[in-house]
Amino acid sequence: MFNETIAGWLRLIGPLADSGSHVSYRIVWTYIGLSLIAAGTFIYAVWCPPEIKKYGDYRDYVNGDGTAMTKSALTEMLDYLEKKGFYELRDAANSTARNDAGKDIMSVYFNFRNERYAPARFAVTVLYYLGFTITGWLAAQIFWRVLLLAFT
Question: Within its chain, how far is the Cα of 146 from the centroid?
């Protein structure tokens, strides 16, 4: 699958154990950067709720799913939120004076789900930042070399 040079670079255990062979630091740092991005992507895929993945913010969620939301789905959301300590929404949902109670429930539900996994969100941010910084720095070095070769 790989040519012999790349296959040799990917045998990192021996070279990194100071066996005398040389591994390009770019290969190692590219591997580290892409591994950080992959770890961030994995955390996002596992801990990010589907509503958050699908919609950018609560307004998109309410406008996108709000018209199709059934009374039983809103009741399930209310039950979920009450278990988390949001008791005042039940009164708003039962009020006949409030036509937009469903929108309120959906926005609170979305925001709660969005903010629920703050440590995971922080970890994804840090991993993406580090991964993209490393790979961006490597790409900038190559770009700089190409510019120097092109104009010298």
Answer: 32
> pLDDT tens digits for 35-52?
999 999 999 999 998 888
Q: Give the residue among 39, 63, 41, 61 at the shortest CA–CA distance from 50.
A: 61
Rg (CA), the chain: 25
Which amino acid is present at 57?
A: D
pLDDT in tens, 42-88: 999 999 988 888 888 888 888 887 777 778 888 888 888 888 887 77
Give the whole-angstrom CA distance, residue 140 versus residue 73.
Answer: 50
In which residue are the tokens 């300590």 written?
85
Three-state secondary structure call for residue 28: helix
- pTM here is 0.68
**Inter-axis angle of helices 71-83 and 101-115, to 10 degrees?**
50
